[in-house]
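Q: Can I see a sequence and its folded structure?
A: Here is a first one.
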Amino acid sequence: MKYIIADTDIQNGIELKEILDVYKMLEFQGSYTTFRAAANYVLEHPPDIAFIQMGKAELNAFRLAGLIQVLNPLSKVIFISSQKENAVDAFEYEADGFLLTPFSKKKIAQMLQQNKGKKG
């Protein structure tokens, strides 16, 4: 499964990628810090999974998630935030997952396991 990370915090992107690198079924496609950069990439290469940071205007998480899901309705969207309050908005959007930073390897493993059969 091909995935992207859209997070304005470069260090968060690096940490998440390092955790995900152990999963052989996942193929890293890139990390993006702005909506424009992420959108330009996904228009040509819709990912199977998108990890998208919430709460940053330069990413516009819901707009990016919507674009990805139009291009590939089977894509999974996992929102990232340092604010646990954002989980409500994420799940109202019907996200496939929500990760609180700092990242927990155990939570990521559980989320990936839960999403194996979702949406296809």
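Q: Show me another, different protein.
A: A second, unrelated one:
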Amino acid sequence: MGKAHRRLWNLGQRSRRGTRRIKRRHWFQKIPWKLLLGIVGVFLLFEILTLPITSILSLETKNPKETALMQQRMEEARAKGKTLKIDHRWVSLSNIPKHVRKAVLIAEDARFYNHAGIDWHEVRTSFKTNWEKGRIVRGGSTITQQLAKNLYLSTSRDPIRKFKELLIAWILETTLSKNRILELYLNIIEWGRGIFGIEAAAQRYFHKSAGQLTKEQAARLAAVIPSPLRYKPTKLTPFLEKKKEVILQRMSTR
């Protein structure tokens, strides 16, 4: 191919690319953005209106007997042709030792009493870590967010579920005291297959009430919270053993 032909060929290529860009621009301009934004707005409004407001408000004086996570676990068991028996025993916050509360707070949400339901510092740190690793390896949910998810939502990670979680967490923080939120959390958190709440976990793993747990046992229970179906507080892996020691060390300095 001569120089003249190459020049003409290059001009043709540039012309075609320019035509494609113009077509894309025209296509982009034709998108009914106002309609799309309207649809999104209606969808979000629907999600807000379907929030369990009455149930959330009742939590100030009423203890939940069953949660969305309990229902999810039972449904998962039924799908496998099995029956899951739920072990859930309520205990008041005043009967949960301070060192037990401290162990859980250190492990899950050290800034619990200082944030309004969302810890933006943790969110940023988790986002940075997950971005660097290329996968989700660190969560940034507060105890309030976890409570919202366990009570009313599911373990899925879709954006809509997260949006509702944030809304419910905000409502929880504006209607309940921090101590009530912590009491609810400690009583409904999953601690094993069919095991929900600190009292059931204490009885099942250590054959004693939550009020009798030692600091060592409290740290063991706190260490397995992120993965209660994978680990047991009575059979710690080297990783969990190290995590337990870190919790105990921090407990001694606070």
